[in-house]
């Protein structure tokens, strides 16, 4: 049960809430060294290989700035 942030109507108990993105922004992610696990192709070495890490190159993307909790009538199409 929640109040829709678009039509301001209180929903019935058990009604599903949807999130509608209303604002995003361009963002840059920095390079991070040795953060991803890389499985060893040789399964016998699995335990020792847990320390194997690959770098994350970082990059650009979009992140959510603001989103609204809405009823099914205003849910984004998908
Ligand atoms: Zn609504």
How would you describe this structure to a colleague?
This protein has one domain (18-74). The chain is 5% helix and 44% strand. It contains one helix and four strands. The strands form two sheets. The protein has a two-stranded antiparallel sheet with strand order 1-4. It has a two-stranded antiparallel ribbon with strand order 2-3. The protein is elongated, with a radius of gyration of 21 Å. The chain starts with 17 loop residues before the first strand and ends in an 8-residue tail after the last strand. It binds zinc ion.
What small molecules does the structure contain? zinc ion
Radius of gyration: 21 Å
What sort of overall outline do the alpha carbons produce when their principal axes are compared? elongated
Poorly predicted sequence stretches spanning 5 or more consecutive residues: none
- Individual helix count: 1
Strand content: 35-45%
Largest sheet: 2 strands, antiparallel
**Beta strand count:** 4
Question: Order of SSEs, N→C?
Answer: EEHEE
Structural class: mainly beta
**N- to C-terminal separation?**
22 Å
Estimate the mean pLDDT confidence. 89
What strand order characterises the main sheet?
A: 1-4
């Amino acid at each position: 049960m929640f109040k829709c942030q678009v039509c301001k109507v209180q929903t019935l108990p058990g009604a599903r809430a949807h999130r509608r993105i209303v604002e995003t922004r361009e963002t840059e992610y920095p390079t991070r060294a040795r953060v991803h696990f890389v499985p060893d192709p040789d399964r016998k070495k699995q335990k020792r290989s847990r320390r194997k890490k690959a770098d994350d190159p970082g990059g650009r993307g979009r992140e959510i700035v603001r989103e609204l909790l809405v009823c099914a009538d205003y849910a984004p199409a998908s």
